[in-house]
Amino acid sequence: MESTHLLSGSKKRVKIHPHTVTAKYATHTPYSPQHGAHTHTHFPQPGDDGYDDAPSFEDFGNFLEETSDRKQLTESKKWSQTLFGSSDKDKDTALNTQVSGRGDGSDGGVRGAKGSGRGVGEQLASFGEASVSASRLTWVGLIGAALAHGCLIVLTHLASERFSLGPLFLLLVRSIFQLLSVAVPLQRGENPFGPEGYRLLLFCFGIAYSLSLCCAYSSLSFVSPGNATTTWRLTTTALSATLAFLLLEERLGLADGITIAAGLCGLGLVLLPTVDESESDSPTDPVVFWRSAFGWSLSALAGLWMALALVGYRSLKERVGVGTALFTVSWTGCVLAPASLALLQEGWSWPTGAPAWGLVLGLAVCSVAAFLGMTHALTRLHPALVSASQSLEIPVAMLLHLAVLPLVPTAPEVVGNVMVLLSVGWLVAMKLLPSRGGGRCQREEYEEILDSPIK
After folding, report:
1. What's the predicted TM-score (pTM) here?
2. Cα(316)–Cα(307) distance, integer angstroms
3. Which residues, 6 or more positions from 126, have their beta carbon under 8 angstroms from its beta carbon?
4. CA angle 247, 132, 319 (to 5 degrees)
5. What share of the chain is helix, strand, coil (3-state, %, to 5)?
């Protein structure tokens, strides 16, 4: 096949082969039509300098012979290597063999493909089971993280009420404990500050996560722990969905969006003021009003920083280990927590006695468990789904408060917590309970690919 470009001064010869497409260009002087003149262009011929001896159509018979239906479809062992991560060369070989089994249109390839259908179905089923197993592990980790977050809320409240330990001081102590996580990357021979090329993004993730914690723990000095935590979670979920779409172009499905919206409505019901607060006619002290407004603003700002942190770690995928991320959050927390203490002029009060130190140690353990569950899930799930699943901490904290502290919830709080429970439960059910026709659809799609005339 030849194409001549008279204005550009070049001619192109294209040779097509089942393996390669070779294009040769020959240049000549620009076309200038003259009366009685003829233009002649010389193309390189076989044996001339600059001519590539590319395979021609005569080699197509050898290609068919090499990939004919005499090469039967690969066995199930090769299928398993292809599906579960063999080398690229093995994947290409297996794929070429399967496709060429239908090469001449003969019935042998068709019978081979149909005959191995049961093995293909088994491999697809095993692959689906492995995927479901990984999803179950991810969601179990998320539920465990939500339970740990609920315990953190109650333990922080207990430390403040019983032992007079400030929230920011608790954040500093737990960050110091978590510095021991540096042993994980060192044991694996990794750089504790992240791999080269991702250290800046990892540093930004640590700063955003620690700023979120500092804002959230600071807000506990101005508003109630329940309102601060609910505002933090609501803002994080809403903004993580928005930022993931804007920064990562990750969209939520319709069912996921509706479920998350229902959970956010439940959190909004939890934030409704009580009857005594709404019907009070006494004038509000300006100092109390502005302190409360500052606390609510800190809670919302904490949600913004946490959403940025979740989206940032989501962009890292699996390039940074969980241990490295935990160490980054720990040392940035050790830097920012004292700065927040100095800014808010919050006093230092060290734990006195074994119960207080046991409570602080429990805080550190719960925070590590919550962090591990969330960061592991971020490598697989949308940030908004991760944050929405953590809304379960609000009902868990309410139940623990009923068991530990004499606090009676209001009707809107009960209804909102029930909505949160139902939304998270429905979300987990949608992700872990596939439809019965899922395997059948995979089988039909595979057979449709085999029967397709386009190879």
Report:
1. 0.68
2. 15
3. 80
4. 40
5. 70, 5, 30
